[in-house]
Amino acid sequence: MKKSKLARLIAAICCFAMLLTACSSNQTPAESGGDVSTTADSEKKVLTYAIGAETTDLSTLYMNNSLCCTSKLVYENLVDFDNGEIVPGLAESWEYNDDQTELTFHLRQGVTFHNGEPFNAEAVKTNLEHKQSNPSFYSLKGITDIQEIEVVDEYTITLHYDHPFYAYLQDFCWPDVNPMSAPEYIIPGDFQTISGVAGTGPYIYDEYVAGEYTRFVRNEDYWGEKPYWDEIIVKYIPDSTSRLQALQTGEIDMIYGGTLLTYEEYDQALAMDGIDGQMAEKDTRVQVITTNATSPYLSDIRVRQAIAYAIDKEEMSVAISNGYEPPADIPATRDTPYADVELETTYDYDPDMANRLLDEAGWLMNESTGIREKDGEPLSLLLTLETGSTSVSMPTAEVIKSQLAEVGIDITIYGTEQMQWYADYLEGKFDLTLWHCQYAFASPHCWFTPMDSMVPQTPSLPGIEGSDEFLATIKELTNMSDDQEVRDTYTYLFNYDVGNVLDIPLTYQKDMLVYNTDKIAGYTFTGTPCFFDILSLEPAE
């Protein structure tokens, strides 16, 4: 039975929510009122920091970027990604069978969920069955391709697949969608709902006060290293200026993440008395322009190439990040597994080449307007972006507009809320769109596999030569296990993407934090820098 158009759209939106670590929220722990200052015992060690969206829900279904600051307080994964390697989490070890169609996890013993339920193989089975029903997991083959979940014994579980795939284990590294939740709160068959918040992490979700804060208390029964702070207070401060003021006055102790801080705000904070900060050495994700080759303006590859040549990434980095963000050459961080590819074609800044290509394509400069024209029609493009997910989207769009104007391309910027933006690009209602993608902990197949239906590249592909082979190769990729074959395939896929100007990588983004030195001595960024890890924070003692 074919899905209805509405059903497909819902599944696509859910998938996209995963790719952006977007969030919906519908449940809370205990709710109360009152000032946080009256409820915190002055003798307790309390850490307070700010987020831009309320923590009404810490569901493992979807997370928005602000909640990336809180999810790892409560939840843990079977495995984690750090220093380019997969490391133990709630699973102490794992192995494949000889033909790599069975993945067995050996679970950590003596772990208890916050509600008192035991963490064991049955709990993992309940979680995985729930996750399998969620269309958000479309790209995570380690979840969706499971044919059978076998509970071998209390602390051993084997996942059966009908074919090998090199990235099954990698797919379990997503911190926002793959943590283990207490089975009591999982509703079978309802992938949209988790009825309560209870993980195995170092803190317990204790109190939520609407419009003000969420309180987390230390899990005294935590199996791992005991955290230093007795309580964590996460304050809801949606305005960036107000967050900086709160940091300066001591109302909060820390601001974490590139979604809550611009690079200018980072430097402003460092100039404050008693405030220090750190920036991740490794890149967090990539900012890209996606082109729509079905647009009448962009169906000619020469126009797409001209746009790529007209973008000065070095100037953009200075303008939007004070030079902190390095220029990007592929739509993946270079720390991403299998992203060490060599490009056959690069589009380094070359405005002369951009002008030459536009001339060849028949778009001639109107000297009176400064905008190129063809058959009396101006070269005016619509650049869309989602507003709210990141602090640098609009500044980046303004730089793009300015740089393309230098070669006679007029840009109209249209920003809208996430789901409307997403619906628009699925229908091809854009010429260019700006988005952010591909975390280092995610295998590149998470970038490519949705291209048949669920991401901005989808409208473009029918208009690009060789797209049938490209999509067929993506499908073949999800059955590959040989290392060299995987490497060769990614070399082809990235070269096709960049060479055909399907995407124009702009800059590699960094995560950062600023903090009060009276409370905090430093922080060690993990292999998932977009997700705050309380155990990596060093207190000032």
Question: In words, what does this structure look like?
Answer:
- With 541 residues, the protein is of the alpha+beta class.
- Among the domains are: 5-25 and 53-63 and 74-185, Periplasmic binding protein-like II (D-Maltodextrin-Binding Protein, domain 2); 285-509, Dipeptide-binding Protein, Domain 3 (Dipeptide-binding Protein, domain 3).
- 26% of the residues lie in helices and 22% in strands.
- The chain is built from 15 helices and 23 strands.
- The strands form 6 sheets. A 7-stranded mixed sheet has the order 8-9-10-1-11-21-12, covered by helices on one side. Strands 18-17-19-13-20 form a 5-stranded mixed sheet, with helices on both faces. The protein has a 4-stranded antiparallel sheet with strand order 4-5-7-6, with helices on one face.
- A hairpin with a 4-residue loop joins strand 14 (364-366) and strand 15.
- Helix 8 runs antiparallel to helix 10 (351-360) and helix 14 runs antiparallel to helix 15.
- The chain is globular.
- The termini are far apart.
In a few lines, what is going on in this structure?
With 541 residues, this protein is of the alpha+beta class.
What's the name of the CATH homologous superfamily of the domain at 285-509?
Dipeptide-binding Protein, Domain 3
Main sheet: strands, sense, barrel = 7 strands, mixed
Query: From the helix content, strand content and strand pairing, which structural class follows?
Result: alpha+beta
**What is the CATH class designation of the domain at 285-509?**
Alpha Beta
β-sheet strand percentage: 15-25%
Instruction: Please tell me what the overall shape is.
Output: globular
Radius of gyration: 24 Å
User: In which order are the strands of the major sheet placed?
Assistant: 8-9-10-1-11-21-12
How is the CATH topology of the domain at 285-509 named?
Dipeptide-binding Protein, domain 3
- Which CATH-level-2 architecture of the domain at 285-509? Roll
Termini Cα gap: 63 Å
Weakly predicted, low-confidence segments: 1-28
Helix content: 25-40%
| Tally of strands | 23
